[in-house]
Amino acid sequence: QVKNREVEALMRKALPKRSVQILHDLGNTGDILDLAVYAVGGFVRDLLLGQENADVDVTVDGDGILFAETFAASHGCRVKSHEKFGTAVIVFPDGFKIDVASTRLEYYVSPGALPTVERSSLKMDLYRRDFTVNTLAISLNAPSFGKLIDYFGAYRDLQAKVIRVLHNLSFVEDPTRVFRAIRFEQRLGFKIAKHTEDLIKTAVKMDFLVKLGGRRLLSELVQILKEKEPINGICRMASLGLLRFIHPGLELTPELQGTLEEVRYVVSWFDLLYLERPYERWAVYFLALCERLTQEQFLDTCTRLAVSEHYRERLAEMRRQGDELVGPMERKLARGEQVENSEIYFTLRGLPVEILLYQMAKSGSSEVKRCISLYFTKLHGTRPLLKGEDLKQLGVKPGPLFREVLDVVLSARLNGKVSSKEDETALVRNLLS
Ligand code: CTP
Predict the structure, then answer these.
(1) Does 125 have pLDDT greater than 60?
(2) Which terminus of the chain has fewer Cβ atoms in its 10 Å neighbourhood, N or C?
């Protein structure tokens, strides 16, 4: 059995000082209201694994909303509460959040549907959770601060590195757990227990996942693709037969595996190069996953995943554009013809980073890869030295011609034909005459 002070020591090691203080303060508020307060779920799991988890989930044995409001009043926080669910979020002035729940028992009306809620004990609250490793609680009240509560053998499973459901109907109650099992297994480097894996196979065979709403399926897929090493998760989804629930035409072929490996290589190259540049890494993996699908199948996949119509059309359009633009360049290179820097620039300009990285990964041509990488590293940020004002002074009238002249100057700059402002001025004069 883990001792209270060992848990406290783990907190001091894994968490910032301020978080530890907040945990004590939460317990003190519980003491004042005579309510038992616990940290629960993923936060405790990660703490025992020596990792910080910024999502602090707290469960109160009693009225969680009253608890949250009392805490907030004495700590300068705001509260957002949901009476219907007995839950509240405490929001600190700097945006830090704590989720508060009241112990409760959820009844599931039908697989895939939202749960209805009724109040119950901590043990019942933990019993309704997905996997044993998420059922740990730590008491926060001052007299028992740090006491680890383990009703379902969670500590043993954490040590054995096992993902295990609490009961046989877990995946029937909530089919998203099939994806969660894979995500935790891959992220934590655990193994899904044999019986739990058999239950997943049964759920797959009995088509429970068909009932899963598109939004929830998308959210689970995106979370797997957002993990540090998504390929392992994709392979696991494939081996458990889950890809067909996204689209019947999805299959993990050796070619797709190759493209995914290329994506891994390309995104890590890009991340090293542009630490600060925001882009959706998961979307590059998603595009790769759908590589073999026709445009129509791709649209069906987006519909299945309840992607909004606007975004669905945009994704499909970008996919098409990527092929249409990069294809001719690839063929030209294959014929051994020269592709000038300006051609690379004007071909790739306007394509989002996600599509460019996907094209880079999927192209079998090292020349295409080189062109796209050149675009990112050198061409992308190139601008003429002449500004609009300079052009006006040279007698170019504002209008469509303006853009054309600037593009000619830019092309010359990209191809190394001009280097100074004087060169550019001479070029414009030449053009105008
Ligand atoms: N939970 C569940 N079934 C689900 C989703 C969540 O039982 N389909 C439970 C889990 O036990 C989890 C808790 O609700 O511990 C909180 O959910 P979430 O924040 O998604 O999980 P974390 O464990 O915190 O995972 P992560 O580290 O990815 O945030």
Answers:
(1) yes
(2) C
